[in-house]
Each structure stands twice: as C-alpha cells, then as structure tokens.
Design a protein that fits this description.
This protein is α+β, with helices and mostly antiparallel strands. It is built from 27 helices and 25 strands.
C-alpha cells in the first residue's frame, strides 16, 4: 500500500480515454484522487493505494501499464507501425477487416441470389464485425460502468448492432472496422506527438564515470607515508589518487565528482571543477553555438562536451536536474487545458447526449406521427437507418482531439528550442500578445555592466582622464574602495561591476556596517565610521552653483548611455562612477522582428535614469521608454498597459527580481531560466538560454497554435453539421458518416502535429526566428 503512485498508461488514443480512466480508478476503494495526463500518457493516484487493484482495473478498462523500469527507446516509423499492429485491438481489427474483404469479394464474384451470396457473405460480415466490435463494445461497457456515460465506443456499438439488426451486414461490419482503424491511426499519431518530449530523456546517459579515491589500499598498507609522518594504515591512498569507476547516474549523490571526456554527453547537472571545453547546450537551452566552460561554470545534464575533458562536481540528483525539471514542467503544461479546450469539453458533454436524444426522435417520431417508413424501403431510407447514421456522426472525437494535439505539439517544439511554456493557456496568451514590456538590465542589455569612467568632484585628475577614463588617482581609488565595500552587500549587476573594478585595481576590502538598501535609489552604510551613500543622481543631486560643472559631466555621461552612481561621504559628494551595460547584440533585431509579426508596441520599464534609458531604448527601437521606476512602479505600469490594451501584454524580465511585474502581465516571460529553479517556477514562459531572439518565434508559434485550434474546431463543427443534415435528409450512409468522422479526426490531428515540424536549424522554428532577425 502507498499514498501516491504514478503509472504510465499505454493504449490511450483520445481524451475520452483519460476521462474514462479517471472516473474508473476514482471509484476504487481507498483512492482519493486520480488525475490522468492524456498528453503525457501518465496517471497520478493519491490515497490508500493497492497497486495490483489499480493495474487490474486499468486492464479491465481496456488499457495497459508500462513497466516503471522501462527506458524510452527511440523507434523508427517501421517499428512504431509494427508495434501498432501487435496491439490486441488492432490485431482483432485487421482480422475482422480480412473477413469483410473476403465477404465483399464473394458478393462481387458470386451471382446474386445464390446460397453463397445469401448465407456465406453475411456470415463473414458478421464474423468480421464481431472481431471489430469486441474492443469498442468492451470499452463502451467500461465507460458506462465507470459513470462516464455515452462515449464514442457506446455510440458506435449501438449503431453497429442496429445496422446488423436491420440487415445492413456489410455496412455494419465495415463501419465498426473503419472506426477501430481510425482509432488506431489516432493513437499512432498521438504517440508520435508524445515521443517528441519523451525523446529528451535519451539525452542523458544512463551511466557516468565517477572519480573515487582509493580507500584502504591493500597494495600500500603498511608503507611509510611520502611525507615521512608515519605509516599508511587506512583512508585515501596517497599513491593511487582517484580511480575512474562507471556507475548508474541514479546512484550519484550531490558532491560526487565525475569526469566527462571529449565528445561525451554530460550525465548530471554540476559545476566545473577543472578543465576547459566548449559545450553544446542546444538540447537543453536551444543555443546554436557552443558555450565555453571553465572552472566554476555550471553545466547541464544532456549537454554535449567539446574537445576538452571536464571534471565536474554534481550539484543536483538525477531526478532533479534541469532536464528532468524541464520534462516534468512540459508534461504538466501539456496537461493544462486551454480556454478553447475547456469550451470544447463542455460542448461535447452537452452535444453527444443531445444528438443521441435527437437520433431517438428521428427514429420514432416520423413513423409514429407522419406515417414515414421505420425500416428501409426500395424507394427511400428508413428513419431507423437515418437515426443510426446520426449516432455515428455524434461521435465527438474530432472535436475533443482538436485542441490537445496542437497544444502538445507546440509546447514540445518550444521546449526543444529552449523555450518553456508552462501551459496551454499561456501558449494562447503568448499568441495574443500585442504589447511587449521589457526590463532593461539583463534583458535588453547584456546584464554584465563594467566600470567605464570615474571622476572626483574637484576634477583633480581631469588631465590624466583625457587619455584614460580609468587613470590612477588616489582620491578616485579611495572613493571606489568605499563604494565597493557598500556594494558587496548587493547582488545587483551594477554593484557587481563596482566590485569587479575594485578587485581589478587590487584595492583593499574595507569593513562595512549598518548597510541599508534604498530600493530603486541606492544603498547606504558605514565604512570605518564614515557614512557612505552610493546612489542615483536624483537621490544625491545638489543645487549648489559650484556643482554645475560636476552635474554637467554626469549629464554628458548619461546621455551617452552610461549609468552613473554618485558617492557621498557624510554630507559631502566625493564624485561619480559611470557604468556601461551595452545592449545585447540581438536586442535591436528582436524588437524589429516583434514589429514584423504584428506586435504594436514595445515598452522599456527600468529603474535607471531617463538619459541612460533613452540612449539605449532609442538605439534598439523601443517605442515607449519609462525610466526611474521602483519595483512597484513597474507593476503599476504593467497594469496600466493591461487596462489600455487588454489581455495582450507580455512582460519580459529576469524571472526573480521582476516577479511582481511578470505576475501583473497577461503573460510573464523570464530570461535565462536554464538551471535556475526559481526562474522556472516564476514565469509563465521561460527563455532557457537567455536568448532574447527566441521571443518572436515563440509568439508566432503561439499565434499558429491559435489558428490551428480555431481551424480544427470550426472544421469539426462544419463537418458534423453537414452530415447531421445529410443523415436526417436520408442522403448520408453509415459508410459516409464513419469516413467523415474518421477523416475529420485524422485531419485535425495531423493539422495539430504540423507544429512538431518546427525543429532544427532548417526547420519552421528556425524560419520563425531567423527570417525576422535577418534585418
């Protein structure tokens, strides 16, 4: 017995299967909750669980459970088709199809009225129909027992039995076999969609080479230690060092050291301890170019090592690495229903019973009230036959599957390109985006600012600074040292630039006390008894006339795109530090691409001053620049955009510091979420590789998904309407109805799967991204 259980289900080919399983398992004693993720083919169960009872019930409902130890193995199209044929339902269907084909041949070759035509052909139709009917009838009965009600298997079973009852043997048998074939093809296409994300599990090797010390070495016990401090008795062997040992990745613990040789895949998330190499992170983050890794750098499981060996310290367990979290979040995202899908589900719950009731009315009302024929006559179709045709058309399969396949395909494709979309609702929201608001630092800019200028109030080093903006000056160095002491308490990128500059000049690290953060304005603390304030020009501005020249220099630096931080000691201004954070090389092209795909307005929201924000914003083509904003001001600005433009506003930020603004937007987009659990959890969409150029392609993918869903729903509804009308008029036959239903289901499924083609450098995704960025 256990409290929680997760199983992978095989044999699900439509969303109705998930509903049937949920209701069937939820009715078992001890089960408090059952949730089936149709897209991922997984079932999560809570309560006092008897696993054998659960699996038995699943099998009785017509499905199966995959072994928990079964590792995903990629299959070719041929292997997938062979696996499809081996499934019992499909085997029965093919046997039934064989009997039906023989029956049609007999009818075609044997003269009408002969005993073969009168008895053998109907018998073969009946046998073929029974083979085809076995699994649909079994599944329909299970649906009724589980409380699901009239599903498509029930409708098809009733229609087939009714058709046999009125002597339409050929049509009855063919209808049920074609229905089963259609279900098999839908299952096949859905499995292909599921494989698009399951294949990510293949990126991580099953084994790793761990470095283990030689302990209690038998070959050296009793020998004198190299430093002559005694005799080696136990512990790590000082002569042997570390040994390489191949182990399963599941056995590795945090802190273990592994070695990854050139060309191998990295088996675990970790931190480089020694070695240098260019690592291809495209499978995880979507980055097209390898990333240089040196000691201290983070690496992801599944990435491909370049030409250098890396010694890596494990930082996450196998089940908690970046790729595992990515797969889990994608599967959860695929399980979330979009507004369109929720509408379709509600519609289908009403639509199917109404059509069944309508079929009963069609069967009995015209014969009872208007003297119309109940059964077929030589001149026209009977109303019972028309009612049976209505039952076939009533199957809501095409409607129900119209949205999930598109969602699974789009979310999987985005994940494979380094864009994590947290659910179908967010994909739809992304597709509706018409306004994009950006944070500046680390989003539109590189996020790695550096000190580019330093100046004292008295301009004592002006002559030296004409040749070198960072020329040595005792006054400036002291100002930089005290500023760095204060900024060491901050993680802001600007603070890190000051600290890095002080370390580069080898300035002493001064003790600091009583540090107070002034949100959006600066920071203050005591250094060796002196009250030091590092803040913005607005915070520390002085109206004294003698300061006019100083202020003019600051204004000039800011006009050129530099961010200035003034330093005040007690009540006296010491000077300013100018930091530059250049725009990303993709920022201008990204903004241009957004406008090309129909985004009407781009906005910059930054706490920096107006001059710096303007210089950067206008250089990359931002429409609306709002500077000097505190965190709460950014939230107010985003809410104002939502009030003005409706539910079409995206906010792009770092996913942690900008969390309130991300939450206020219609869709929040986090930058650089690879390996960062907080960023993965914060935003609705995460750009794993910190690659802003992925954004236009992601928005366009969302728009294509919306168009696909709208087409699928309207196509399914129109086909239903046409054949409902044709059935009532007596034009449509059972064959036509099942072909229409099966054809509509396959068309909407294949249309949704078109989004899976957005892979690779020559793919649709690449076209979405690079075509618009080539300007």
């Amino acid at each position: 017995m256990s409290d929680k259980l997760q199983l992978r289900i095989t044999g699900m080919d439509c969303a109705d299967c998930a509903l049937k399983l949920e209701k069937g398992i939820a009715n078992l004693a001890g089960v408090t909750e059952c949730r089936v993720n149709f897209a991922a083919a997984k079932m999560d169960i809570s309560g006092e669980i008897d696993e054998s009872a659960i699996t038995g019930k699943i099998r009785s409902l017509g499905y199966n459970v995959a072994s928990p130890d079964e590792r995903y193995v990629p299959r070719s199209r041929r292997q997938q088709l062979l696996g499809l044929l081996r499934q019992p339902r499909n085997t029965f269907t093919l046997i039934g199809a064989g009997f039906i084909i023989v029956a049609f041949i007999i009818e075609w070759l044997v003269p009408a009225g002969s005993s073969l035509a009168l008895f053998l052909a109907p018998a073969l139709f009946l046998i073929g129909g029974l083979f085809g009917l076995y699994f649909p009838a079994r599944a329909g009965w299970a649906a009724l027992r589980s409380g699901q009600g009239l599903d498509m298997n029930v409708l098809m079973t009733i229609a087939a039995i009714g058709a046999f009852a009125i002597g339409e043997y050929g049509e009855a048998a063919t209808v049920i076999v074609l229905f089963s074939l259609g279900e098999a093809l839908e299952g096949y296409t859905m499995e292909r969609a599921r494989d698009s994300i399951r294949s990510l599990t293949q990126l991580v090797p099953a084994e790793a080479t761990v470095l283990t010390p030689c302990l209690d070495c038998d070959g050296h016990l009793g020998q004198k230690l190299p430093d002559n401090s005694g005799v080696y008795e136990r512990g790590p062997c000082p002569w042997c060092g570390e040994h390489e040992q191949t182990v399963a990745v599941e056995t590795l613990a945090i802190g273990d050291k592994i070695i990854v040789k050139p060309g191998e895949r990295i088996p675990m998330d970790g931190r480089v301890v020694s070695g240098r190499s260019a690592v291809n992170q495209a499978p995880i983050t979507g980055e097209s170019a390898p990333v240089e890794k040196a000691p201290g750098a983070e690496v992801f499981a599944g990435a491909i090592n370049g030409d250098g060996a890396l010694e890596i310290e494990v930082t996450h367990l196998a089940e908690d690495n970046t790729l595992s979290r990515l797969i889990y979040l994608v599967e959860e995202a695929q399980a979330q229903k979009t507004p369109a899908q929720r509408f379709v589900d509600r519609f289908a719950r009403v639509y199917t019973p109404l059509v069944v009731a309508g079929a009963a009315v069609v069967a009995f009302l015209p014969p009872l009230l208007f003297g119309q024929p109940f059964l077929d006559t030589p001149d026209e179709r009977g109303w019972l036959y028309r009612a049976l045709t209505l039952l076939v058309i009533a199957c809501p399969c095409a409607l129900v599957i119209a949205t999930p396949v598109t969602m699974v395909s789009a979310i999987s494709t985005a994940a494979r390109r380094g864009v994590l979309i947290k659910g179908g609702a967010f994909l739809e929201a992304l597709g509706r985006v018409n306004v994009v608001a950006f944070d500046k630092t680390g989003t539109l800019t590189e996020g790695q600012p550096r000190l580019v200028n330093i100046a004292c109030v008295d301009n004592c080093c002006a002559e030296a600074r004409t040749l070198d903006p960072l020329a040595a000056c005792d006054h400036c160095d002291d100002m930089l040292a005290v500023a760095a002491a204060i900024e060491r308490q901050s993680t802001h990128p600007l603070a890190q630039a000051i600290i890095a500059a002080a370390e580069a000049r080898a300035l002493p690290q001064l003790a600091v006390k009583s540090v107070v953060n002034l949100p959006g304005r600066g920071v203050q603390g005591r250094v060796n008894g002196r009250l030091i304030t590092v803040g913005s020009h607005t915070l520390l501005h002085s109206d004294a006339p003698e300061m006019d020249d100083f202020h003019a220099r600051i204004t000039g630096a800011e006009a050129s795109g530099q961010t200035t931080m003034l330093v005040r000691e007690n009540n006296t201004l010491r000077g300013y530090l100018a930091v530059s954070d250049p725009p990303r090389h993709t920022s201008r092209a990204t903004v241009s691409a957004l406008k090309q795909i129909g985004v009407d307005r781009t906005v910059m929201l930054t706490g920096d001053n107006a001059a710096v924000a303007g210089a950067i914003g206008y250089s990359i083509g931002i429409d609306d620049i709002r500077a000097g904003l505190l965190p709460e001001d950014k939230v107010t600005a985003v809410r104002g955009l939502v009030d003005c433009y409706g539910d079409t506003v995206a906010m792009v930020g770092d996913g942690v510091n900008d969390a309130p603004a991300l939450a206020a937007a219609s869709v929040g987009i986090a930058m650089g979420a690879g390996g960062t659990a907080q960023a993965l959890e914060t935003a609705d969409v995460a750009l794993m590789a910190d690659d802003l150029s992925q954004l236009p392609a992601a928005i366009r993918l969302g728009r294509q998904a919306i168009h696909n869903i709208q087409f699928n729903i309207w196509f399914a509804l129109i086909i239903k309407a046409i054949f409902l009308t044709s059935a009532i008029l007596g034009v449509a036959t059972l064959w036509m109805a099942v072909f229409a239903d099966m054809g509509a289901s396959l068309i909407v499924t294949l249309n949704g799967m078109r989004l899976l083609k957005a892979r690779g450098d020559s793919s649709t995704w690449s076209d979405l991204k690079t075509d618009s960025l080539s300007q």
